[in-house]
């Protein structure tokens, strides 16, 4: 059974709270008593949630995304509203380009104070795929090449810009860039194969 609008909002709020908890866990400190209290609370919460496991109410895929690309894969670890590890990105389309803006927290850290390169790669993979969808060319990733120009800072506003480079038969080539202000941090090229039902 799919979630009602109220349940969807409740589940989304739960994921946002879990995301906050995960972020806090990366720099957590405290007395033995304080940490014991958190341990106990989390144990109780996990037991409560485990009792409701395997009753999934959110669809895996939603082709009717109503202009919000984050609705396409609602539980995606990269862009899903219903996944607490997904970075909080605003993703939108202008003409044939797709843009994503947001920042990354400590749960996405690789080198000190920098976003893990694998996270950046995963965001490119997702946003480039959204660009294919925006151009009515839904495809599956065949290859992805990332050029890291500079370290990607944590807790800093970033912007991904992606565009369709070319299409030939079933092959779709999409490019992307990530900037912090005017600074180019990375570039990507994805080859997608047009999906046929």
UniProtKB/TrEMBL annotation:
Residues 8-55 form a coiled coil. It is found in: Cytoplasm. The keyword Transit peptide applies. Keywords: Coiled coil, Cytoplasm, Fatty acid metabolism, Hydrolase, Lipid metabolism, Transit peptide. InterPro entries: THEM4/THEM5_acyl-CoA_thioest, Thioestr_dom. It comes from the Bacteria. Its main location: cytoplasm. Residues 115-184 form the Thioesterase domain. CDD domains: PaaI_thioesterase. This is PaaI family thioesterase. It comes from Zhongshania aquimaris.
């Amino acid at each position: 059974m799919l979630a009602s609008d109220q349940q969807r909002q409740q589940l989304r709020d739960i994921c946002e709270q879990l995301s906050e908890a995960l972020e806090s866990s990366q720099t957590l400190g405290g007395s033995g008593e304080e940490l014991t209290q958190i341990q106990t609370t989390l144990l109780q919460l996990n037991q409560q949630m485990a009792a409701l496991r395997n009753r999934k109410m959110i669809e895996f895929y939603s082709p009717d995304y109503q202009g919000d690309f984050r609705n396409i894969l609602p539980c995606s670890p990269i862009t899903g509203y219903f996944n607490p590890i997904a970075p909080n990105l605003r993703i939108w389309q202008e003409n044939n380009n797709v843009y994503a803006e947001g920042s990354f927290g400590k749960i996405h850290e690789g080198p000190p104070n920098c976003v893990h390169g694998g996270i950046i790669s995963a965001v490119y993979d997702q946003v480039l795929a959204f660009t294919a969808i925006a151009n009515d060319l839904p495809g599956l990733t065949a290859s992805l090449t990332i050029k890291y120009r500079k370290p990607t800072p944590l807790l800093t506003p970033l912007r991904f810009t992606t565009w369709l480079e070319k299409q030939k038969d079933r092959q779709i080539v999409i490019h992307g860039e990530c900037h912090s202000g005017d600074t180019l941090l990375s570039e990507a090229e994805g080859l997608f194969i047009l999906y046929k039902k």
